[in-house]
Predict the 3D structure of the following.
Amino acid sequence: MKLTTITQTGTGRSAVCAVDDFQAPFNIGIGAKLTGTATFNIEYSFDDPMADGYTAAGATWYVATGFSGVSASTGGSFTIPCKALSINITASTGTVTATIIQAGPV
């Protein structure tokens, strides 16, 4: 997977970043930069954003461990195989930009 960036300003969900759940081992690095003030989560879903009829609003989202109720720039890794990642700003009007890279075969 190439380096991907998603951004959200104000409360709500960002665009969805589809990831490759067939990578083994499954490893994703995430760096989330906060500009302004906000509380946000990085969330994942097992629903396939490439499936016919998919909508982010209709997907089931789970908060990633270590990325819950964040109110500052943060980074970390994610190892739960999933289909999609997203930013969800739960309070305030700041902007969060998440840079996402998934490890793959060399």
